[in-house]
Write a structure and sequence with these properties.
about 375 residues; alpha/beta; Nucleotidyltransferase, domain 5; two-stranded antiparallel sheet; 7 strands; about 10% strand
């Protein structure tokens, strides 16, 4: 098969390599402009494209045209030589990727299934509407405070209606009127998006299954499913936690040093998981083993560290529920927590015994090194 790479940007740059030599280059303003070199009537090719906004569409179109698309993991392209010697442009990047295709060195990125792609897009639209509404509400509250008016707290969707009963000055009311109008218009759109998400999730039994976990609602479960896509592509929970950027960063040369979490992966899902952890920590600290576990960490390390640790553990629980096809079982979780504590206590006890033995050996060595005691030991 041919070895081809595309660099996607303002213009699409095409490069084909064979035997280590560049055979053909091309540039097009759109993907359809490359039909003469990658169309359905051309020879099949292995085509590398970097993961980006257009990657899903181009990957699907390449398969329809009979080619083998390779979606490149952008976090590992530097190891291929992209940007080496501070030389980076579309022409060079396409050539580097094409040579990597020929050598079979492409680090592949996971491509979501079509249904999960649709779910991810719907979640993105809802996120945009919700964040826009929240931004306008925050702006109105800030303008009111600048005029000496403190607005009452309420739900975001009820904000336009609640503010009508507040005595605002004429100037302030005219100032915030456009913002309130947009906020009022966003509410039906968000309700409609929630309805569409419910319809999409109704065909995903795993979403309702994950909703049985504490602090996890429809949005958190749907976002988790849309990002992970397939639980079986991970071997253990730590891989999922690292994939979502919830594991500590590590800088180890001689001594192991751990830092803050890596914050790699999908930032939106990570923020949702942290919010779910706060919900568990605040509302059910003594009713659930997760809350008790987080409370114990909070006493030692503080609330923020405990919440991030709880979000990381929640990821492992959700992944295990999905992998095993089970619902949340607090009794089983409590038993596993107890086993973990027993092992920890046992480890501490063994450490104490070993330290006592080491201290005893040290005292005995010091005693035998004294002049008179050494002769006594030799006689005995």
């Amino acid at each position: 098969m041919r070895s081809v790479a595309l660099d996607l940007g303002g213009k699409i740059t095409f490069c084909e390599v064979a035997g280590g030599e560049v055979l053909r280059r091309a540039t097009a303003s759109s993907f359809q402009g490359l039909e003469s070199v990658l169309g359905p009537r051309t020879a099949p090719a292995r085509v590398a494209i970097e993961a980006c906004r257009e990657a899903w569409f181009i990957e699907r179109r390449l398969r329809e045209w009979g080619h083998e698309p390779l979606v490149v993991d952008t976090t590992r392209v530097k190891q291929l030589g992209v940007g080496q010697h501070k030389r980076k442009n579309d022409r060079i990047d396409a050539e580097v990727l094409a040579r990597a295709v020929e050598k079979e060195m492409i680090p592949l990125s996971h491509v979501l299934s079509p249904h999960r792609q649709a779910l991810r897009m719907q979640l993105g639209i809802r996120r945009g509407l919700v964040e826009t509404r929240a931004g306008y509400v925050t702006m109105v509250r800030g303008l009111a405070r600048a005029h000496g008016v403190k607005l009452p707290s309420c739900k975001v969707e009820d904000f336009p209606r609640k503010i009508e009963s507040v005595a605002l000055g004429e100037d302030l009311r005219l100032m915030v009127a456009p913002l309130l109008e947009i906020t009022r218009a966003l509410n039906p759109g968000i309700v409609e998006m929630d309805r569409k998400l419910e319809m999409l999730c109704s065909t995903e039994p795993v979403v309702l299954q994950l909703c049985t976990a504490p602090g996890v609602g429809l949005i958190v479960a749907a976002a988790f499913v849309s990002v992970v896509d397939d639980a079986k592509r991970f071997r253990h929970a730590h891989q999922v936690e690292a994939y979502l950027g919830l594991v500590p960063s590590e800088h180890t040369s001689v001594h192991r040093r751990l830092g803050s979490i890596t914050k790699q992966g999908n930032s939106y899902l990570r923020s949702l998981l942290v919010q779910a952890a706060w919900c568990v920590f605040r509302t059910r600290p003594s009713e659930d083993p997760l809350g008790l576990w987080a409370t114990a960490i909070a006493h030692r390390r503080g609330r923020r560290v405990a919440v991030v640790a709880l979000a990381r553990r929640l990821v492992g629980i959700l992944w295990a529920m999905w992998r095993n096809g089970t619902v949340y079982d607090p009794v089983r979780l409590a038993h596993s927590s107890v086993r973990g504590l027993q092992q920890q206590v046992q480890t501490l006890e063994l450490q104490q015994v070993a330290l006592r033995l080491a201290a005893r050996k040290t005292r005995l060595r010091r005693w035998t090194h004294l002049p008179g005691n050494r002769r006594r030991c030799m006689k005995s």
